[in-house]
Amino acid sequence: MKNAFIFKYVGLLIAFVGSLFFYLNRSIFVSRGYELAIDGYLISRTLVILFWLYLIVKLFNYISEDKKIKNIER
């Protein structure tokens, strides 16, 4: 039970740090020669923000599930 607890939070942390890396490195989303093509850049940053929101909701779901399990075990 404790291993699953650690595994899901570490997985969320890795996904959040990875998406933060992609969000902060602008050169990853804009290829050479396409500096003026900003539409794809905006879309990709928007998708990263949506992924962050998804991770936050998933984290709150995990926290609420853990609290329910602890209340049941008592």
Structure overview:
There is one protein chain. The protein is mostly helical and 74 residues long. The protein has one domain. It is built from three helices and no strands. It has helices at 2-24, 26-29, 38-73. The longest helix is centred in the last third of the chain and has 36 residues, at 38-73.
What is this structure, in a nutshell?
The chain is an all-alpha fold. Helices cover 85% and strands 0% of the residues.
Biggest sheet statistics: none
Fraction in helix:
over 70%
N- to C-terminal separation?
16 Å
Q: How many separate domains?
A: 1
Contiguous uncertain segments of 5+ residues: none
What is the chain-wise order of helices and strands? HHH
Q: Which structural class fits the helix and strand makeup?
A: mainly alpha
The share of residues in extended strands comes to under 5%
Over the alpha carbons, how many angstroms does the gyration radius reach?
17 Å
Number of helices: 3
Average pLDDT figure: 77
User: Shape from CA axes?
Assistant: elongated
> How many β-strand stretches?
0
What key phrases describe this protein's structure?
74 residues, mainly alpha, 0% strand
Topology:
Blueprint: H1 2-24, H2 26-29, H3 38-73
